Amino acid sequence: MSTPATVLTPTVLIIGAGPSGLRAAAELAPKVNGEVLVLERESLAGGIPRHSDHPGYGIRDMGKFIDGPKYARILREKAAAAGARILTNAMVTDWAGARSVNVTMPEGRVRVDADVVILATGARERPRPARLIPGDRGQGIYTTGHLQNIVHLKHGKVGKRAVIVGAELVSWSAAMSLQHVKCKTVLMTTEYPKADAYRLFSGPGRIFFNTKVATRTKVTRIIGKPNVEGVEIENLDTGERKIVDCDTVILTGDWIPDNELARAAGIEIDPVSKAPVVDAALRTSKDGVFAIGNMLHPVDTADVAALDGAAVADHVLGYLRGNRPAGAPVGLTAEAPFRWVAPSVLRQNDPAPPRRRLLLWSDKYVPFPKVVLRQNGKVVAQKRLLWPAAPGRVFRIPSSLLGGIDWKAGAVSVGLAD
């Protein structure tokens, strides 16, 4: 492959212009001696919120309650006003060095050589093949992102009757998009015993959309071709199956990080979450490469991802001043019912993680969990929390629990009291 004729040399390269990447750019651009460059493969920066045309964005990071497109626009404007350079339709294809990448744009191929790289590529919903849903391959099957792209960006249409696979926050976001094009959500199906979304959303959502949420169920077959005509639903407790008529199927949740670039760089990847392994300062295992946002915790709300972008700025500035990790790393792992925890590398001299929270994913609903940290089988910290651990949304615990660990006693695990 020939060497690109154009070489860009920003101080900081941010790959991905979603909430975390744009917020990091806005924080860093006024403080960095040199350019902050943001690369975005889509034609418009802003990430998922740009086509999530409903309210609920900006609560934690802006103190606002606004719709997704407005939220994305504010993030874009703040990053640009701070002095960051944002290039859209810019696809990073591969690495050209430790902190160099090759980029394909309409104008041609470019190489970017940076002092620091921040990966902010986010996460995506697994499509049907990855979920191994059998049946016919008719038209009318979408992920939430695909649906919202069609409805809100391309102003297209879908069918008239939809079944939504999943019952978490993004599932209700899909229901709102379906309503926008007068497609009725006839059923939400989830394998969990409770709806995954916060009760604040799922309770009113059932009433507003006149939608039934079928818990402990799964789609065992999609029926119909060339167009979807229905789905077969199985009750996981009784084995009973029934056919639900629909012409649209929306696959929501079941997130996986967009981790291809991290893997290509040889960055250590968590075997369960498939996210880059990071410490509390959001450093990856590759020197000078940081990772932020929902590629680390697939998937949290957009405002939490944006706050990762705010948090990484100080750590990047420290790296540029010559600061490097100090102290031996200690691993942090998740015990069942938790699937993963982030960050998963601890150092005694590191700062607290963003928002002073450890983020976990639970496979079980526990209303008032008693969280326990263990080393060598010994309980070193525990705390009863007043909020539930629930499938379908990130569970947060105070990082102050780490104050009780022995930094010389080896790996730490986080779980629940027996």
List descriptors:
alpha/beta; 418 residues; 9 helices; 3 domains; FAD/NAD(P)-binding domain; 31% strand
Commentary on this structure:
The protein contains nine helices and 29 strands. Strands 6-3-2-10-21 form a five-stranded parallel sheet, with helices on one face. Strands 12-19-13-14-15 form a five-stranded parallel sheet. It has a five-stranded mixed sheet with strand order 24-22-29-26-27, with no helix packed on it. Helix 1 runs parallel beside helix 3, helix 1 runs parallel beside helix 9 and helix 6 packs parallel to helix 7. The chain has three domains: 189 residues, FAD/NAD(P)-binding domain (3-Layer(bba) Sandwich); 127 residues, FAD/NAD(P)-binding domain (3-Layer(bba) Sandwich); 84 residues, no CATH class. The protein is of the alpha/beta class.
Question: Gist?
Answer:
The chain is an alpha/beta fold and 418 residues long.
Map the helices and strands.
Layout: E1 6-8, E2 12-15, H1 19-28, E3 36-39, E4 55-57, H2 59-62, E5 66-67, H3 68-82, E6 85-87, E7 91-97, E8 100-105, E9 108-113, E10 116-119, E11 123-125, H4 128-131, E12 141-143, H5 144-153, E13 161-165, H6 169-180, E14 184-189, H7 199-209, E15 212-214, E16 217-223, E17 230-235, E18 241-245, E19 248-251, E20 255-257, H8 260-264, E21 289-291, H9 302-320, E22 330-334, E23 338-342, E24 345-346, E25 357-362, E26 370-375, E27 378-384, E28 394-398, E29 412-416
Parallel strand pairs: 1-9, 2-3, 2-10, 3-6, 10-21, 12-19, 13-14, 13-19, 14-15, 22-29
Antiparallel strand pairs: 4-5, 7-8, 8-9, 11-20, 16-17, 17-18, 22-24, 23-25, 25-28, 26-27, 26-29
Helix pairs in contact: 1-3, 1-9, 5-6, 6-7
